[in-house]
Specification:
The structure is a single chain. By secondary structure, the chain is an alpha/beta fold. Helix 8 links the parallel strand 8 and strand 9. It has ten helices and 18 strands. It starts with a strand and ends with a strand.
Length: about 350
């Protein structure tokens, strides 16, 4: 069976690297754990690092965090549906919000549960996912300040997750100005300006982060060490905290091109034929993981001499060429993963997970 490993030493290195950089910049931060899909073993590794704030988009994952350590501050990071408000207030100390009616429901539930629920109000800054429009922000805050059992601890924004709009110094200055306007208008202190996710980290590392930006929500850069501006691993970090190991379950020398009349496969694809390859063969391996678990485009073979040819629901087909490394049935191939690849694997019940 294929299995996924998390290297706790490399994860710790990444965590300590970011912790140092955030401390130097005077910025608070929380770890976005949604990639881990509530995996108890991996969440425990986060807590072991000393993480004191965990963000997630699934209430059940936050419930697991509270079970492992009730002292960790939990943050729900997407608009909550009405039917889940009760559970969200039970397991999340903080939530990100952009709908006034939803905050009314949260307030009512917080009163019922005798809790003070903290919120960060999200502001639209151009990527057109969640967020209150800037011209509506003062009126929005004026209504929220009236609600019982609600404590506004920040305003924030999200960039790059839908339309690819990148953070900029100008956008973040605008976010800081919104905070100043709200504080002056209502004589209220807003502790956090949450500038965004991993995509904003390069601005901090290059000293382009405006004063006033003092909170981040970080997942991808912690787990993959990636600079999302340059699409490369940040010097001093690791890009291979996670590795997928898949076993070769068949290996045969076969033609490079399929034989017969071609139609669309179950994924709706029709094979492209390069007629110059007729008559040529190569060694082809099948490994024990497939589309049910991961999209092959998010896999990066450790052995750069091999090529991923395609996949079906339960198998991925690999071109080994002349098989210079003498692979055999039963051998393992190892893959690094992009973020969406790791997310697919972690959400699969068919791939074992282990810590090394």
């Amino acid at each position: 069976m294929a299995y996924l490993t998390l290297n706790k030493s490399k994860l710790k290195d990444n965590f300590e690297f970011l912790k140092k950089k955030f401390n130097e910049s005077g910025v608070a931060w929380g770890v976005v754990s949604k990639l881990l899909c509530g995996n108890r073993l991996f969440l425990q590794e986060l807590i072991n690092l000393g993480v004191d704030e965990v963000h997630d988009s699934r209430i059940s994952n936050l419930a697991m965090v509270k079970k492992l350590n009730p002292e960790v501050q939990t943050v729900y990071i997407k608009p909550v549906s009405k039917r889940n408000v009760g559970k969200m207030v039970e397991f999340a100390d903080v939530s990100l919000n952009s709908e006034l009616e939803t905050i009314h429901w949260i307030s009512e539930e917080a009163v019922l549960q005798n809790k003070k629920h903290k919120i960060i109000i999200m502001v639209e800054t151009g990527d057109l996912r969640e967020g209150v429009m800037g011209e509506q922000l003062v009126d929005f805050y004026s209504e929220v300040f009236k609600l019982p059992n609600i404590e506004i601890i920040g305003l924030g924004t999200n960039l790059n997750c839908l339309n690819g709009v990148m953070p900029s110094t100008d956008k973040l200055i605008q976010l800081s100005l919104y905070k100043q306007i709200i504080e002056l208008k209502f004589n209220k202190k807003i502790p956090w300006v949450s500038a965004g996710t991993s995509v904003t980290i390069p601005l901090m590392l290059t000293h382009q982060l405006p004063m006033g930006i003092n909170h981040f929500r970080v997942g991808e850069t912690l787990f993959f060490g990636v600079d999302l501006f340059e699409e490369k691993v940040i010097e001093g970090m690791h890009g291979d905290v996670f590795e997928l190991h898949a076993e070769i379950i068949e290996m045969q020398e076969k033609p490079l091109l399929p034989v017969g009349n071609l139609a669309a496969n179950p994924q709706g694809e029709v094979a492209e034929i390069d007629e110059s390859l007729y008559g040529q063969t190569s060694y082809r391996a099948i490994v024990d993981v497939g589309l049910l678990d991961v999209d092959p485009k998010y896999l990066l073979p450790k052995d750069s001499s091999i090529e991923i040819l395609g996949a079906s629901s339960d198998m991925i087909i690999i071109n080994l060429g002349e098989n210079p490394n003498k692979y055999h049935v039963g051998d393992e191939l190892t893959f690094d993963l992009k973020y969406m690849g790791a997310l697919g694997i972690l959400n699969s019940n068919y791939v074992d997970k282990t810590v090394i």
